[in-house]
């Protein structure tokens, strides 16, 4: 799946048409809002990202992608204005894998995408499990007793942290620092809310995430 973030509807539709005709699954977004909503549901194989966007621009989106452990390695190609060397340099320094100078040809775009996907191809990550809960890092999927479960990015990160550290107790402050980043300014109530929704989504396996009174949370295997 390839996500295209482009506010010009005519360019976006042409890009999507070309990608689909070339055998890719593709979705398009006019701005950052819809893009981030989609990212909470599914992580794509590559993002084609226009720099000049209304509101949150492409460089800001790229910085956020690179700051998350889930998307720090996600391939990103920036679309820049032709002749804007500054944007190209900043984009590559920020972590873009390649760039396309507008106006670009559709066949060039497909060629660049395929090249980046080949270059950034990684071996599948491991599978983490506890009780009936299984998290497949390579596929970015979670199942409970074989049933797929849809998690937000933060819920996924929380679950991954617990599964990587079975039996370890995390304080609410530690979870804020690890999952919401050290610079996040928020109440520990945020952790409680997310743990609550995660337990609900894990259904019969939600009890694997235990509350440690006066401290925080931990995940234990079925007793």
What does this structure look like?
It is a single chain. This protein is α/β, with parallel strands linked by helices and 223 residues long. It is built from 8 helices and 12 strands. Strands 2-1-3-4-5 form a 5-stranded parallel sheet, with helices on both faces. A 4-stranded antiparallel sheet has the order 6-7-8-9, with helices on one face. α4 (85-94) links the parallel β4 (76-81) and β5. α6 (153-164) crosses α8. The N and C termini lie far apart (40 Å). The model has no long low-confidence stretch (mean pLDDT 86).
List keywords for this structure.
223 residues, 5-stranded parallel sheet, 41% helix
Radius of gyration: 20 Å
Q: Termini separation (Å)? A: 40 Å
Strand content: 15-25%
Query: What is the β-strand count?
Result: 12
Mean pLDDT across residues: 86
Element order: H for helix, E for strand: EHEHEHEHEHEEEEHEHHEE
Main sheet properties: 5 strands, parallel
User: How are the strands of the largest sheet arranged?
Assistant: 2-1-3-4-5
Spans with pLDDT under 50 lasting ≥5 residues?
none
Helix content: 40-55%
Count of helical regions = 8
Alpha-beta classification? alpha/beta
Shape: elongated
Write the layout of secondary structure elements.
Elements lengths: L1 E4 L3 H13 L4 E4 L2 H10 L4 E5 L7 H10 L8 E6 L3 H10 L3 E5 L3 H15 L6 E4 L2 E4 L4 E4 L2 E3 L3 H12 L5 E2 H8 L9 H13 L7 E4 L3 E4 L4
Parallel strand pairs: 1-2, 1-3, 3-4, 4-5
Antiparallel strand pairs: 6-7, 7-8, 8-9, 10-12, 11-12
Helix pairs in contact: 6-8
């Amino acid at each position: 799946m390839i996500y295209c973030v482009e506010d010009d509807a005519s360019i976006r539709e042409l890009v999507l048409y070309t990608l689909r005709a070339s055998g890719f699954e593709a979705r398009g977004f006019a701005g950052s809002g819809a893009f981030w909503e989609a990212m909470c549901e599914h992580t794509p194989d590559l993002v084609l990202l226009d720099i000049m966007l209304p509101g949150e621009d492409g460089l800001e989106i790229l910085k956020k992608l690179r700051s998350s452990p889930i998307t720090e390695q996600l391939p990103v190609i920036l679309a820049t204005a032709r002749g804007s060397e500054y944007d190209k340099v900043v984009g590559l320094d920020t972590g873009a894998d390649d760039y396309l100078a507008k106006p670009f040809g559709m066949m060039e775009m497909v060629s660049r995408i395929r090249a980046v996907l080949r270059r950034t191809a990684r071996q599948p990550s491991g599978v983490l499990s506890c009780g009936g809960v299984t998290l497949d890092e390579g596929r970015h999927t979670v199942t409970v007793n074989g049933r797929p479960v849809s998690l937000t990015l933060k819920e996924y990160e929380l679950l991954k942290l617990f599964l990587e550290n079975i039996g370890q107790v995390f304080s609410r402050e530690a979870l804020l620092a690890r999952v919401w980043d050290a610079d996040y300014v928020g109440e520990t109530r945020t952790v409680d809310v997310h743990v609550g929704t995660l337990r609900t989504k894990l259904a019969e396996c939600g009890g694997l995430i235990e509350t440690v009174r006066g401290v925080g949370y931990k995940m234990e295997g079925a007793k």
